[in-house]
């Protein structure tokens, strides 16, 4: 039922406001065609003011209100922020930092996920909520916790870590080998000697650090599934998820977690205003990739994004007019089952009182609400929220499409196919590589995600519809696969990449790929150990460049940051360093081709290389020759165009105004 | 008696030197016309070498020596630095950092002001000093402690904080409301759950942080008044004060404290050499403002400043020749009852051995002492230290005034009126706004004091005599009042500002004013909530600009850093943003006018605006059209001119040499 | 026996590899003409897997293998990294940070050198190794511990510190005086009140900090001598040392320690690629200076350096072709008894897996091994490893010397004199001055070692053979002695400098010399207190300049950073500041001359001054007018030339190719 398949709305925190505001909120939600509201995320101290004593009355009224207004509830369990009584009762169940400092409440996320006391009270409140609301007609999706990702190094963690390691490694000998404990005399003789990677004198053990991230990910996942299962025990049909937050510091393996949620949901906060369109595309493509690989058909949900700003170097840059809808629709075009914001009404007090809301402090008169309302109307007109029986109202800023085919001609929601992936061009993205790079003490600082996003951005700029795929994804069928800086690569992944090429794929591998095994041990004998044969190259030396130094290749391209010294026992050379050494290579293998890029290329060089590779592979962009800043997405409804620039462009014979979103009819 | 009303001198730490140096010091003090010396500030471990056992002999000799030389003693209680025996006896009464780290002695200021043990020994030594010296003829002023401002987060603090909160908020419900604890599930169900804002996982609660500053201020004030009262019990006529240190990190509400001292005393250490004249003027005007609002008639004292340097980005810039006297006299012109330095003789060892002294390490032969001596002679000749019967000796660098009226014609000290305030132009300065801005997580980093000083500096540069006024100051009579970034504004303050304009005042309010109530809750409905009606504007959106971005207004002026989107339901527009939206507005209200400046203006723009406002309000500068770097102060003795530049200027028809101080006769 | 006098090799960690790799390693060592391998440095958890239970079998095989291949073993005690069982058994014997945080294992160097438990287990393992291997024929040198330098602030340290202070100062009165505890009320009344300089509120006591460094140095030295003596008890003929690591943070007084080792051994890791040649020369000259002053005849050993990289601002810059041998030979030319690397085979895992090795991850095919092999062959041909009976093979990159005298004509190792010092030109280097500068809160940040290296580098660039001398070195005979920023100077040192000049020496003293006594108390009466009379100057004021500000002298030279105001009661002025004040002075004293440089001069200005001084003193460079980047060293075999540039130069009538090393025959 399409009504039920689309989420347009926001986090709603009515407990921060007098009840008369609730009525205004519900009316305004209707006005903005909101279909769903997330409630309860940080309500624990309201729901359970003292241990075991519940106050559900207010939440009853909230859910009833939503239901009466035809709005779905995304009901959260509040376990991301235990109330002050938890600190009081269980001081040793709070977060301990790496240096042994015990944190206290006063913010959020202050707890140890391995503390039995924390797990017990979490499960209790989740169960109580399930008991009470599992059959509430407003509840459409359960949202366990919020943005899992809290580190802790306490004794509970130490104990649990040992158990996890026993399970993973079996014996201490295996652990010692995996962690290379012969380096710096770290060989363990007793499981009790193993500790979390707490503050130590100098450089830590990378394998220990990586395993600790894996451990935290697994333990948080257990905390999640524990709540999920409690909910499903009461309501087997319940849909349950949790919102993923992306970031190098987050010890959560989202690809793995995606198997345990009913709908992959992400929060997305870009780090720069100008970079927001490309960053949004990457996050959306990654979420779709996780969903697809976990068997969810590529469907996912943008659970949180900021209504009106992008925080850039500590400054809240305002989204210019039109950007709210353009970014929301770009996510939807890439498979999101809606667009949800944090938050509905900006808080008057508290730590995030200056986070923007759909209803800003001044009220519903502001531009941001007008834009949200227009977007809601547009979505409703599109059939994405058909339970609302209001007339379709054309929203000018969403299109400058002339009469004829276009928005007006779009099919109804019910008729639409679900999600379109690329199927042609993919970028490999493995969060564990980011962890691995972060744990290791590399020859120079390396930003894994930045490298991956760079390659994705180039393809995005060139008009390609790109899938971002985790290592477990099916690779067959892709014409082009880019594997940037896949530092940690399992034997199995290496085998699958070989097979991919052999079967006809075009593979582009960059420097720092296939270097270490799953325990961060270098694959010796010549880099990239896991892919040396496939690529036909042998790297003998890394030669990182200091900031400000560039090296010109004989192709006219430029490398900065990273270079290598390699020999090419089995590959053709496409580009060379100034001294004639190979820089970029190509090797035919089976029915396919494997390229190796031994240096950090700038965007222009990536364009030239990828254009060539895609042409050779027969991977066509959605639209060719797009101007910079114009995004084209293939959807079941045809191609959507997003003009992220201020200028009017002519695309596919049509004028597309600055800031406009235009849909081309399915051809 | 004028002798007794003027302080020219320094901190003197004879305990660091053999007694033969004391005699030399006293002789040199006479030579430099020193009238007062602060003693005992950090002498606790000498005065009470073991708990309860006193050694007053050396201090007897110090005070007797001062008295014999006709020099007053400012006698300090030494409680800012407990001796090592305190650490040994009361390890849990030492400072605990936010992260739980307990500090130890080895520096200064290591104690918890809420620890009963600390309070007990502090009161004991203060009482012992009072008993012994209350009637010593040299003791003219008591100086309790030194630069109150130490943070602590220990359990003593937690207990005391709860008591303070109960008194402030009454019930937990009120507290929960004031602190917006519904955000992030922080609702308190038991007073015992309330803690100081210790290290937590992520962003802290702004209202908790602000109340903690208020609490620390109150508790330190109680520690001060406890000592003050003990002294006054022994010597009811004793004059008692403590030295205020300005800085964003100092949790002391100086406006409030000013009511509890007999003489407002400040320490002043500018942060840049070129900025020192303007910063000194601001600090002086603020001290005068606190004194006036607390009923002390505007009298105050510069208790500490550095003899020969300004520390700028970690480098001690030397004051060029003449600057010592020029800065001292500028403070005096603005109401200081003297000029005191830290310190008399530079320490040979210890943490501040490289802090400059009037007697530098090389001895009394140095330039700094020569300048101090010349200043002393000048002050004596001025009648500010008439107890010294020495001939007046003209000090050339203090003036290049030609014969005739001028220094030579100045009236005697006895004849002078006391302190002149501006009475015409004022700048609102509320340290709590700085705390509020620091506790909040704003849309961009904001430097409250920098903004206030910027507006003050512009008026200073334009030759205005400015009062810097705390919120409780009387506003009636000011022609112009500038309120920069008064983020936190009480209802009462808003009412008084309205009344001020209504009665004929010209009010200039900037962005980020009137935004939150006293608990940091945003005043919703359109910014600036507290002043919206008065100003006739309604701000819908903040639009902070990243570093390096500027916006041109239609007046030719430039805004950087902060801009806003506003509507002007009831105001005229004086300047507009490039897109035509209002930037600066003006509204007539009653007999006055209220201006609103929605963006950060550079100095040139502030000059244009304030010149216009002052002209309209009839607020004339002390002297018009002063060159940059020339300061004019109106005093009871006429106008004093300070040429802070190296160039000679023609002012009011007279040549004023580079670096010179010139007095114009009262007209 | 020359064989036994030369160390070409590396740290070898066979325990990280399967035994089949050992055989390959030994064969490759032969191939590279390796004469020595350091083993056991971090092997504790392998050697003593559980407390008191040893596993020596593998080390037996390692040492036997080395012996069979004719390679010497440098046998380390493994005490720099206690195994995890130590943490488990003695949690309170681990490092405590200044802020009280207790560190745990997981890296290296995590222990308290003052913890009885640590000392006991360290002595036990060292003794066990001595018992077992003292008579092993491969063992040629004992290498106790690794890079002593770990700070700790725990209670064990507190107790030991008090004992050390009692011994040093005798009474508390003396301590209070030495530490100037009257500043900020720190006077101690009981030894139990004395603590390590733990985290405190604000600036710490410089004298306490300096004494704490001295204390740590002495206690680590005691830990070293304890192990050394245990070894010598078993094997009185054993040669024992430990490897010094240079760095401002290392609390080890290497000049003093040099008396306790049988061979001064240093590790050297330059901080910039371009700066590596000059930094290496400085480190080598310093090591030779320590050795000579300690009676070891100037012999020393480069125990560790990196095979293939220099880490510069976090980026591993690759050594270009030829640099490996050039830097190794440059050290040897300056007296090193060999060239040892860290490490032989790059680790596959662990914290330093990206540290380069002679055998890189790709194996023995790489450039770095080829260069190491070529160097080994060259050294063997030179007679430095005559036990290897292989034909000499000319290594082209080591020379472009035309036929005739040169490498081919070099004498045999047996015939060579041992070490040549300069004997003519010296630079004063006292690590305690670095500590003193670091502990004090100076008028601006000062980099002591940077200043010393700057003066050394100028002399090096001008072709001088320079000795770097500790304060205890014999000074007689030097024509020129430069004393840069010798902030802390004892009376005895001052007396010896005076005598040095009086006897005919040319002494160049810079600003910030002779300022404080051994307790960091300023020598009052005019800077530089200890040298005022000798230099004939009297500094009255320091005038540090902010970054970016330069002052031109009347000589055309430029000063930045530091300037001073001085009078010259007894000296001639060589250069003046813009205002005519003296900047550089000269005073004849006895048969010599004393120069004073009151400001920080740039390299060009140092060249002009030192050229003049050296000319006047009759100190000739090894070769005159060397191009920048060409280094000339006088050795027993004649002059060695190192061309660190890429260009070919004509030197002494011969062409010297870019990167080449050329030996001129003894003339």
Q: Which properties best describe this structure?
A:
alpha/beta; 667 residues; TIM Barrel; globular; 3 domains; 9-stranded parallel sheet; homotrimer; 7-stranded mixed sheet; zinc (chains A, B, C); beta-galactosidase activity (chains A, B, C); 18% strand; 27 strands; Rossmann fold
Largest interface: A-B, 57 and 56 residues
| Averaged pLDDT of chain A | 93
CATH H-level name of the largest domain in chain A... which superfamily? Glycosidases
Q: What is the chains' assembly state?
A: homotrimer
Major sheet: arrangement of strands of chain A: 5-4-3-2-1-11-8-7-6
Helix/strand-derived class of chain A? alpha/beta
Helix content of chain A: 25-40%
Rg calc of chain A: 26 Å
Count up the domains of chain A.
Answer: 3
CATH level-1 class of the largest domain in chain A: Alpha Beta
Report how far apart the termini of chain A are. Answer: 27 Å
Question: Main beta sheet of chain A: strand number and arrangement?
Answer: 9 strands, parallel
Query: What is the general shape of chain A?
Result: globular
> Beta fraction of the residues of chain A?
15-25%
Overall description:
3 copies of one chain form a homotrimer. By secondary structure, chain A is of the alpha/beta class. In chain A, 31% of the residues lie in helices and 18% in strands. The first copy, chain A, has 3 domains: 2-155 and 200-399, Glycosidases (TIM Barrel, Alpha-Beta Barrel); 156-193, no CATH class; 425-617, Rossmann fold, CATH 3.40.50.880. In chain A, the strands form 7 sheets. The first copy, chain A, has a 9-stranded parallel sheet. In chain A, helix 5 runs parallel beside helix 8, helix 8 runs antiparallel to helix 13 (431-439) and helix 14 (448-461) crosses helix 17 (603-617). The two termini of chain A are 27 Å apart. At the A-B interface, helix 2, helix 4 and strand 10 of A face helix 8 and strand 16 of B.
């Amino acid at each position: 039922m399409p009504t039920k398949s689309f989420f347009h709305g926001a986090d709603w925190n009515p407990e921060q406001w007098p009840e008369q505001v609730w009525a205004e909120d519900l009316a305004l939600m209707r006005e903005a065609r909101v279909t769903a509201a997330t409630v309860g995320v940080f309500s624990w101290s309201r729901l359970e003011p003292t241990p075991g004593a519940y106050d559900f009355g207010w939440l009853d009224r909230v859910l009833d209100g939503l239901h009466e207004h035809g709005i779905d509830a995304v009901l959260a369990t509040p376990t991301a922020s235990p109330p002050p009584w938890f600190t009081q009762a269980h001081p040793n169940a709070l977060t301990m930092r790496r240096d042994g400092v015990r944190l206290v409440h006063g913010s959020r996320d202050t707890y140890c996920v391995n503390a039995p006391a924390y797990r017990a009270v979490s499960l209790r409140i989740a169960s109580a909520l399930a008991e009470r609301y599992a059959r509430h007609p407003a509840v459409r999706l359960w949202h366990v916790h919020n943005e899992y990702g809290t580190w802790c190094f306490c004794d509970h963690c130490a104990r649990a870590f040992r158990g996890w390691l026993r399970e993973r490694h079996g014996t201490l000998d295996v652990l010692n080998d995996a962690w290379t404990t012969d380096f710096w005399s770290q060989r363990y003789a007793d499981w009790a000697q193993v500790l979390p990677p707490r503050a130590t004198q100098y450089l830590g053990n990378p394998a220990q650090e990586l395993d600790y991230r894996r451990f935290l990910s697994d333990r948080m996942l257990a905390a999640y599934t524990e709540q999920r299962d409690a909910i499903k025990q009461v309501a087997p049909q319940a849909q349950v998820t949790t919102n993923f937050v992306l970031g190098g510091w987050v010890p959560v393996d989202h690809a793995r977690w995606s198997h345990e949620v009913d709908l992959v949901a992400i929060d997305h906060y870009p780090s720069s205003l100008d970079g927001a369109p490309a960053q949004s595309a990457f996050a959306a493509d990654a979420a779709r990739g996780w969903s697809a690989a976990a068997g969810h058909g590529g469907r996912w949900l943008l659970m949180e994004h900021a209504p009106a700003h992008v925080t850039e170097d500590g400054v809240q840059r305002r989204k210019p007019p039109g950007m709210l809808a353009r970014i929301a629709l770009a996510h939807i075009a890439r498979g999101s089952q809606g667009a949800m914001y944090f938050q509905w009404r900006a808080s008057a007090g508290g730590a995030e009182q200056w986070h923007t809301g759909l209803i800003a402090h001044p009220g519903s008169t502001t531009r941001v609400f007008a834009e949200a309302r227009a977007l809601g109307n547009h979505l409703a007109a599109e059939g994405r929220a058909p339970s609302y029986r209001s007339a379709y109202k054309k929203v000018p800023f969403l299109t400058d499409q002339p009469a004829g085919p276009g928005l007006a001609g779009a099919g109804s929601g019910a008729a639409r196919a679900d999600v379109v992936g690329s199927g042609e061009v993919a970028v490999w993205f493995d969060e564990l590589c980011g962890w691995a790079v972060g744990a290791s003490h590399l020859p120079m600082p390396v930003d894994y995600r930045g490298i991956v996003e760079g390659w994705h951005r180039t393809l995005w700029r060139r008009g390609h519809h790109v899938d971002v795929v985790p290592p477990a994804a099916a690779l067959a069928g892709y014409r082009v696969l880019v594997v940037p800086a896949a530092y940690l690569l399992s034997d199995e992944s290496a085998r699958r990449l070989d097979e991919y090429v052999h079967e006809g794929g075009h593979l582009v591998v960059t420097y720092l790929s296939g270097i270490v095994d799953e325990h961060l041990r270098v694959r010796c004998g010549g880099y990239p150990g896991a892919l040396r044969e496939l690529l036909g190259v042998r790297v003998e030396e890394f030669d990182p460049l200091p900031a400000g130094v560039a090296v010109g290749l004989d192709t006219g391209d430029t490398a900065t940051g990273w270079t290598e010294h390699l020999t090419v026992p089995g590959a053709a050379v496409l580009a060379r360093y100034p001294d004639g050494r190979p820089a970029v290579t190509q090797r035919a293998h089976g029915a396919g081709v494997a390229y190796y890029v031994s240096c950090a290329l700038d965007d222009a060089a990536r364009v030239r290389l990828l254009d060539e590779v895609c042409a050779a592979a027969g991977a066509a962009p959605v639209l060719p020759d797009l101007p910079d800043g114009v995004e084209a997405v293939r959807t079941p409804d045809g191609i959507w165009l997003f003009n992220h620039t201020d200028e009017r462009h002519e695309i596919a014979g049509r004028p597309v105004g600055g800031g406009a979103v235009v849909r081309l009819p399915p051809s």
